[in-house]
Amino acid sequence: MNMQCNNISPALEISSVKDFLRNICLDKEDIIVQNLELRNVRTVYDFLRHVSYLTVTSCTGMSNEENVGISSQSNLKFASAHENILQNGVSVNGKVAQHNGDVGNLGEGELCNGHAPVSREKGDRCNGVQINGQHGGAAQGEGILTNGIGSSGVDVPATHSEATYACKEIAAMQDYYEQAKEKRSDAEKKGEYMYFDMYIKSEVIKTFPTTDRDKERLINYIYKVMDVNDLLMMCIHFGLPHLWPKFERSKIRNVDLFKRIIIEGRKFERVKNEMGISFSEFVQILNFALSVKKKRIFCNNIFSQFDPWDCKSKKKHTKTICDKIHQFIEFDNWTFKNIIDNPFFQRLRNLSQLGVCQFVYPGATHTRFEHSLGVGYLSAKYFTHLCNRYNLSPYCGELNKMLRCVQIAGLCHDLGHGPFSHTFESFFMNYKKEDTDHKWNHASMSLKIVEHIIENLIDQDDVLDSTDIKIIKKLIIGRAHYKSLCGVDPVDSLIEASYDIICNNRNGLDADKFDYLQRDATIAPPNGTLPSLNCNRIISQSSVINGHITYNVKEIHPVWTVYMNRFSLFKQVYTHRKVRVMELMLCDGFRLADDIFKWSESLQDLDAFLDLTDSSIIYDIKNRAKKHKYDEQVQKSLNLINSVIHDRNSNYAYKYIAEINLSEPQLIKYLKDITNEERIARYAHGLSPDDIIIDWNHLNYGMGANDPLDSVYFYSSDNEDEAFIAHKEYRGTHPRYFEECNVRLYCKNKMVAHLAKDAHNKFLSDVFSESSPLYKKKIVK
Which residue ranges does the record assign to the HD/PDEase domain (predicted)? Predict the structure, then answer.
């Protein structure tokens, strides 16, 4: 809803609530106005106090939060170079001068805490606001400056003239600011800060005799008013409504603008002379502006019932996609236009999700495009659920921005994949690279592409800004480090946990995994050999505690099923022996042709990378082979690729020889240290190390050799505020080892396959015989 919130009448005390509501175009405006009049709510001031309340939360480091009074001020003290302002309304040296307008001199060298003199004479007015001693305001009458902020109610005379007194107040403002800034700097080093929390009382709005459509419009409008006018909201809730018109006339409606123009610019004369703000009022506003880290607006969701108007609105501004996993998923028009319809995202249509698995499992034909749509949908659903757990709306303010970033990151997390997905990354770009070598990875490429897309969008509209790029990139790669966040406020805790929604480096439970485990399992018939997973239950039982996503402990078995399903898919599909040999053949063919086409170098050029797809890389080789029939290197490349795609019985196809499975960690390490192609080839005369390939497959539950449940936080229904690691009694049965190693031997030349078989058998007899000295030394010991 596009509404202007800055045109609120500056005359707060006389602006009627009817004029305020007229800006919203409500269906039942008159009925709402009548209802408010019955509640004695007639002005904007009354209305905003009626539908909202405020708290200031003080935080120190990582300690638990503590609510403090909204009018509390720091005890900063200063010694003015001029004569001092009175302390708490009492004259310096304990002397109170009352001369009915005569001049009274103030002592020198005294300290004050920033409170100015006061007058509570009944009937005084300030900017049209009646002051009856209930709340303070600056008023001038017969040479006496009156102020009610933090005063004791004692009348104190002004100095020689109002001008002289004003000069002293300006100088005092300057001195106080310097001291306050230094004090604030020390507080920041200690991690001391405050949150300015504004709450929309949705339960009050819910009682209004009108439609949900009107209520939603009203809440959205109030939210925007608060978001834009946080400094003015401070004036209302701090009992300083008379300052609202002063700030309105100066077009200063939020704290950031006040700090930038007035405080950092040191426009203290403007504060005093043009805006008419007294010293004590300045002190209160300054302390607030310097101490508040940020504002937060809270509003519970009250629209849980079916609303035809809401559905009609969504239909107008969203598009629906039919997905075989999540059924009907929706994205707004902006996301479709700028993200999904972007050429880099459309490129995913031509990248198979499971690479060469499609040549073993005929149903494995889904693409990265489908998967990315699913992750984008699940990410937004996940974040929305976590917001609702806190009774926060993900459609307003800071959380709305985060929701947008989460969805974009979910959609774009796989933009950097090469042809045939992980096959290109593992067997082509990083083939035979050591762990210490620099390796190309699709995630880094995704970050590069996302940055390119978002930078172009920033120039087109104001939906995203430069800070969103960092957020989206961090969402894609996940958190690298986890720190204790005990006592963090709900919004910050939720935002911190959001970085685990798409890529959870702690325990692997994320939207990416939830989607591909469900999607990839559909390549087999329902109730077939592959396990199925329904992540909706797991997401619905998730919550955020101290910056971590947690799950109800009664869902520990569904959570464990996620890890079990991952293990099963890796063992039965991703590392199937025929799948692996085809990946080896395909990428051997790619490497032979890379010297000609320079695909590996095109990764630095986004335009060239845009054209790099499953079909394009094969087309390049076939087209080159037709034009250069005598190019031996290209012909070898084509023969290998055809052996995968067309002719499985080709003499160029690699042959599976044998495999062994190990689960004992010490045994796996032992075999890894002594096994290589050169050693096995020595067991058979006529067998070359280049004729064979040793393929290592480490199968685990996502956390290497560790139990993944040791990294998952749970909560109990009895205490939803405390996270814990589930003890063994919760878990039931679990495997003895959480990682196993599958080692396969393939032969590139069918003519020597029998030699490879003999060499393999002799190698195993030699290495794993109990009589082997090497075995006794490495294993038995």
Answer: 364-514
